[in-house]
Design goal:
CATH topology: TIM Barrel
CATH architecture: Alpha-Beta Barrel
CATH class: Alpha Beta
Helix content: 40-55%
Number of helices: 11
Strand content: 5-15%
Number of domains: 1
Distance between the termini: 7 Å
Number of strands: 11
Largest sheet: 9 strands, parallel
Shape: globular
């Protein structure tokens, strides 16, 4: 059975409030948390930007069995890869077998806070790959250095506090090249909700990469992040989508947009029809269950669900009884 996880939107809720929701989610049968690593919200209406690494430590301390990780951290701009490795090793040591490290190539909304040139996508991919090499060296516990890289340098150093169990590295991608690379060099893949044909293609590329490295892709975690909008009425669900998560209706790459205010200006053009095929908006729990079941059937091991409205308590209880309990 796939794990149905709770997508913790730190860009949308106060960290204390979100911690309470996550504790409730575990109580009601959600098996994991994917925590957003954001320096800024997508739009001002969302209103928060709590530091995910501090928050995840509290999450691990106040829950019992949930697995969790950042969905996703970019190890290339705000953080030097060595800092990501140190933070990951500490959480892995504190919460053995529960923490996973989700990495991605970054978005200007969060990463450009440090200034400088914002590279093209293919460069950001190369930066992430080099960063992951550094992180792996450090998580091995061996003395490591990185003095021949293209994008990063690291003097001779080692991590002294290491987890009993290795921290698995999952890479977030929606593209075939990175999916194949991830299967070959990392432990799992994260991808956002999309049509079944695209997701089937990505999982196929992931499997190709795994086979090239002599690994069995069927045993490697495949995580999906799924945004949806549910409320008592369709009108309420639609209003939540348009107000709280208009970025879900923007059918174009968003990695180069730098401010919540720019997103808010674009959000004025978003209409109900823009969410079609991108985010399910419905008052019917059976429709949400059938929607999620398709991704379970496709082979995802974890599906982290984000209901974009403010009705989180209602969502957690209703999905526990009418969606999670009825999935096959």
């Amino acid at each position: 059975m796939a794990i149905i996880g709770y997508a913790a939107a730190l860009e949308q809720f106060h960290p204390t409030e979100l911690l309470e929701y996550s504790i409730m989610a575990e109580k009601y049968g959600f098996g994991g948390v994917m925590a957003a690593d954001h320096f800024q919200p997508w739009v001002p209406q969302q209103g928060h930007n709590a530091f995910v690494w501090s928050w995840m430590s509290s999450l691990g301390s106040t829950t019992q069995k949930m697995t969790f990780g950042p969905g996703v951290t970019c190890p290339s701009f705000r953080y030097h890869p060595s800092v990501v490795a140190q933070a990951s090793a500490t959480l892995g040591a504190l919460f053995p077998g529960r923490f996973w490290l989700g990495l991605g190539s970054g978005e200007a909304l969060n990463e450009h806070v440090v200034g400088g040139v914002w590279p093209e996508p293919h460069v950001r991919l190369k930066m992430m790959q080099e960063a992951i090499d550094i992180i792996k060296k450090l998580l091995s516990g061996e003395v490591a250095r990185h003095d021949n890289g293209t994008y990063f340098t690291m003097e001779r150093v080692r991590l002294w506090t290491l987890p009993e169990q290795p921290v698995p590295i999952y890479v977030a991608t929606a593209g075939p090249v990175t999916a194949k690379w991830t299967g070959q060099y990392c432990e799992g893949i994260i991808t956002p909700g999309a049509n079944l044909d695209k997701l089937r293609m990505l999982l196929g590329k992931f499997e190709e990469g795994a086979k090239a490295a002599g690994k069995d892709a069927t045993k490697m975690p495949k995580l999906l992040q799924l945004h949806l909008s549910w409320a008592d009425t369709y009108a309420e669900a639609l209003e939540s989508a348009l107000t709280e998560w208009p970025n879900g209706g923007m059918n174009f790459p968003k990695q180069d947009i730098r401010s919540p205010e720019d997103f808010a200006a674009m959000a004025k053009l978003v209409r109900a029809e823009n969410f079609e095929g991108r985010m399910l908006i419905s008052e019917h729990l059976d429709e949400h269950r059938e929607y999620i079941q398709r991704f379970v059937d496709l082979g995802f091991d974890e599906i982290h669900v984000h209901n974009v409205g403010r009705n989180q308590e209602q969502f957690i209880k209703a999905f526990s009884e009418q969606v999670i309990a009825k999935l096959k």
